């Protein structure tokens, strides 16, 4: 039985020449989301450790330029952040940049030349699985945009077995087109210098992390917190740290003892993880759920929804509950209030780390660029270059 991501030894592929890679870095303007973490962790390493393989061009909005650019990296500043411009006009700018591979999240611009190999990362399609949690104004445009990208892309990257299976089911993709690359279990937050968050003290609160939207299940979480009575009995607060999605503002929960922190910096989040009495993750559906990995890396007691999609991390949770059962969740919260923290990271060393993740991306980009180049050589009557041992 496959229990989730396991560590692996990567053959680091060496390209015949440097691959000219374009990456849509507009997500770097939206900290607090999993895609932001993903981009930073992967491309920080590609820029730092894989300069032998790539010339990278970052597509950026305004002054939001990555802080990890190397001397050889370039920046393409978008004329507009509007989706219509990015979808219909950005392809022309990418063509002029002369890149081999273009990497996007969720969507893929129209108008890319055939010589530009488009790759799209689709982290999840939960809006298709849990339609009752999303309005049609959210679901319909994403369905057509994501399906269009997945259909036209040369390769689709996703982050968990569950997300891969959903892409096959809802978008009718061949699993041969999908590259499964797990996210890293290690986190830069453990190395960050913590910045204290006022009004909280060590061990005085339970922590929940994730942006505010219905699938995060915060309404039931707050109801369960109130039912547990740990605020009245023990003075333990519930801190929910996460970016507000304007589309779901009217669903933000409130109750005595509940604190909403929408604008945490990484330094503040590191402090919150380090000093929390426990961590609770009530989400109904996830593509991956990085906050669970982050909490485990800090060694705090974790209570997690039974629908969490990464079994190898679920196994490290101290308490597991049905996300639809308020009484069951209340019992887990009450147990967290009395649980003892070891302060030691969970034994996740056997899982993938971000270096693995970056290397897997390197290999995917090189593999796609060289496959297409060999096909082009063959069409022109040249001998195709043999595939090196170990390459797919």
**Secondary-structure element series:** EHEEHHEEHHEHEEHHEEHEHEHEHH
CATH class group of the largest domain: Alpha Beta
Query: What proportion strand?
Result: 15-25%
Helix content range? 25-40%
Q: Main β-sheet: number of strands, strand sense, barrel status?
A: 7 strands, parallel
The N- and C-terminal alpha carbons lie at a distance of 24 Å
Mean pLDDT: 86
Shape descriptor: globular
Class by SSE composition: alpha/beta
User: What's the helix count?
Assistant: 13
Structural domain tally: 2
In the CATH hierarchy, the third-tier topology of the largest domain is known as: Rossmann fold
CATH superfamily of the largest domain, please? Glycogen Phosphorylase B
Count of DSSP E strands?
13
Q: How do the strands line up in the largest sheet?
A: 3-2-1-4-5-6-7
**Low-pLDDT segments, ≥5 res:** 376-392
CATH architecture of the largest domain: 3-Layer(aba) Sandwich
What is the radius of gyration computed over CA atoms, rounded to a whole number of angstroms?
22 Å
